[in-house]
Structure to design on (579 residues):
């Protein structure tokens, strides 16, 4: 999918001037609140009309003031998952799910409701009224409703920010698997770097109503390492732990990670801040941290004066953050060998 | 309780006038509330003032304006007279008077209901393939039902009590245009009819209480079904 967006819109004191041409099936729109992210959603979906410009989805023109084209939202086949689920309060879960499906032309109906209901695990909710659902259930139904409209593009407008942390990371796999299973490209809007890392391949960074840069989640996370509250967040998807003196021992490539909180079954997702990794030049032999990994430095990068050290632990990537003086003292260069110490309690379980 | 056949007719006519006025006003009230809530219009203030004017004007003034408009020499009255329609001094004129006087109440209630609808629900329905009209019928209308019910019952109750505008445009003809308030007015002007007046007053109270009870019950019913 390719989106070409060249649009200006003035709304009171705020104005937005976008110029972007981005291709991909998992595109992130990143920016602080008030930067104009949601305005992009409204412009692309047709809920808001630009003052002037052009909007193309693949080769189809959605809006062009020169050609006098402005496709109404119902003809764009672009569905939205909102921050709040926005389920229709007077309809049952089932009627909500089928709202867009019923209005979708027959030739576009490729997604079977049964398959989606199965995937989202919402079958027991079908006959319920929407006011009796929990936050996570609501968002799953809202996702199902959007997907069943058989859209050619899904706009996810901060769909996770109204949820608490635990729920947020439970919903992410649904968002991804639905898009992959049914082949629907999406724009994912968020101000969270972790969410970007989990959801997007390419990212447009928006600031003050303008496109600041086009980047990748990895690059974005590295650039923001020094400024971000938790540094760079290393993400681990780990399975099959064994119990080791009350700790969970997870295989991580050819390494083992000892983690204090885990799940005995299924996949778990952990994050580890770049600031929670201590680097040693030599093997410290006896330390209290439960993880000591021998690593090779593969790359160094600068982020606002801090040094990001990209490490390889038997082929697995890890990023640590140190200050410039430490990097000089340890004389770290690509190729040098280091020992990374990580406390078992530093891993934060997301899911 | 003493009710003459003419009183019974007055009661029937009152109900008929109030019901007709309410039913006729409903689509217009809904459309006006929708315009005021969801549309950006130039001159919205003017529409707003116009809609609310009957709420503050003395009903007699409204009646007089209607008389000027619909009377034999009024600009609408003339046109209607040519097609053989006469409104003034018929029960239809009472309907028009009630409709005009009760209209602001109807619009206000529907509007309150509509204002509580989250705009993003409409965005959602549009992005799911609903045209503006589809969205109006499947989202706005069902979510305004509460406002529509309370507006209708308010307007119905107000119409039952309509006096000032009605007496001017419809007159006070027993058996033809005399509604409950007009009949009571007649009784009160002759000192011997106190009991008769009181009987009609009691009927009036009874109907009002019934309408208000129905209003409450429907409201509760709607609350319950929306809390499913």
């Amino acid at each position: 999918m390719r989106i070409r967006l060249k649009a200006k819109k003035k709304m009171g004191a705020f104005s937005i001037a976008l110029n972007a041409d981005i291709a991909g099936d998992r595109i992130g729109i990143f920016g602080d609140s008030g930067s104009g992210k949601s305005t992009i959603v409204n412009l692309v979906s047709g809920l808001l009309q630009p003052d002037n410009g052009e909007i193309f989805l693949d080769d189809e023109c959605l809006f062009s003031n020169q050609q006098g084209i402005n496709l109404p939202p119902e003809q764009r086949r672009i569905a939205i998952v909102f921050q709040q689920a926005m389920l229709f309060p007077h309809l049952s879960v089932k009627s909500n799910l089928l709202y867009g499906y019923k209005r979708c032309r027959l030739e576009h109906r490729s997604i079977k409701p049964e398959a989606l209901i199965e995937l989202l695990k919402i079958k027991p909710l079908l006959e319920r009224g929407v006011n009796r659902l929990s936050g996570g259930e609501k968002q799953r139904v809202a996702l199902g409703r959007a997907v069943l409209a058989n859209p050619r593009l899904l706009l996810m407008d901060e769909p996770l920010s109204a949820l608490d942390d635990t729920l947020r990371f439970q919903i992410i796999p649904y968002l991804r698997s639905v898009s992959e299973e049914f082949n629907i490209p999406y724009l994912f809007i968020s101000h969270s770097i972790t969410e970007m890392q989990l959801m997007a391949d390419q990212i447009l960074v928006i600031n003050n109503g303008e496109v600041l840069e086009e980047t990748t989640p990895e690059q974005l996370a590295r650039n923001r390492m020094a400024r971000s509250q938790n540094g760079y967040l290393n993400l681990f998807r780990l399975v099959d732990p064994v119990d080791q003196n009350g700790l969970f021992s997870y295989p991580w490539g050819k390494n083992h990670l000892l983690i204090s909180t885990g799940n005995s079954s299924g996949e778990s997702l952990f994050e580890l801040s770049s600031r929670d990794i201590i680097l040693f030049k030599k093997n410290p032999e006896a330390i209290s941290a439960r993880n000591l990994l021998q690593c090779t430095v593969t790359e160094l990068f600068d982020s606002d004066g801090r040094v990001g050290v990209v490490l390889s632990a038997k082929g697995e990537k890890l990023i640590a953050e140190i200050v410039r003086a430490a990097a000089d003292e340890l004389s770290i260069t690509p190729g040098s060998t280091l020992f990374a110490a990580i406390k078992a309690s530093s891993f934060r379980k997301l899911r | 309780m003493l009710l003459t056949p003419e009183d019974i007719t007055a009661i029937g006519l009152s109900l008929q006038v109030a019901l007709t006025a309410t039913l006729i006003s409903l689509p217009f009230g809904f459309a006006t509330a929708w315009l005021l809530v969801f549309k950006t219009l130039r001159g919205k203030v003017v529409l707003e003032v116009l809609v609310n004017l009957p709420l503050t004007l003395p009903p007699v003034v409204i009646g007089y304006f209607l008389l000027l408009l619909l009377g034999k020499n009024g600009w609408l009255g003339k046109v209607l007279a040519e097609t053989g329609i006469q409104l003034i001094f018929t029960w239809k004129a009472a309907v028009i008077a009630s409709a005009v006087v009760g209209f602001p109440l109807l619009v206000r209630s529907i509007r309150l209901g509509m204002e509580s609808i989250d705009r993003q629900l409409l965005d959602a329905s549009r992005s799911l393939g609903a045209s503006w009209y589809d969205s109006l019928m499947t989202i706005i209308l069902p979510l305004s039902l509460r406002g529509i019910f309370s507006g209708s019952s308010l307007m119905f109750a107000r119409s039952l009590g309509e006096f000032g505008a009605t007496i001017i445009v419809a007159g006070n003809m027993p058996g033809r245009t005399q509604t409950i308030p007009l009949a009571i007015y007649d009784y009160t002007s002759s000192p011997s009819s106190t009991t008769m007046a009181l009987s009609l007053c009691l009927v009036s109270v009874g109907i009002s209480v019934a309408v208000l009870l129905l209003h409450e019950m429907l409201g509760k019913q709607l609350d319950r079904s929306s809390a499913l």
The first strand of chain A starts at residue 2 and ends at 11. Chain A has two domains: 2-223, 233-349. The longest helix of chain A spans residues 165-181. The CA atoms of residues 193 and 221 of chain A lie 6 Å apart.
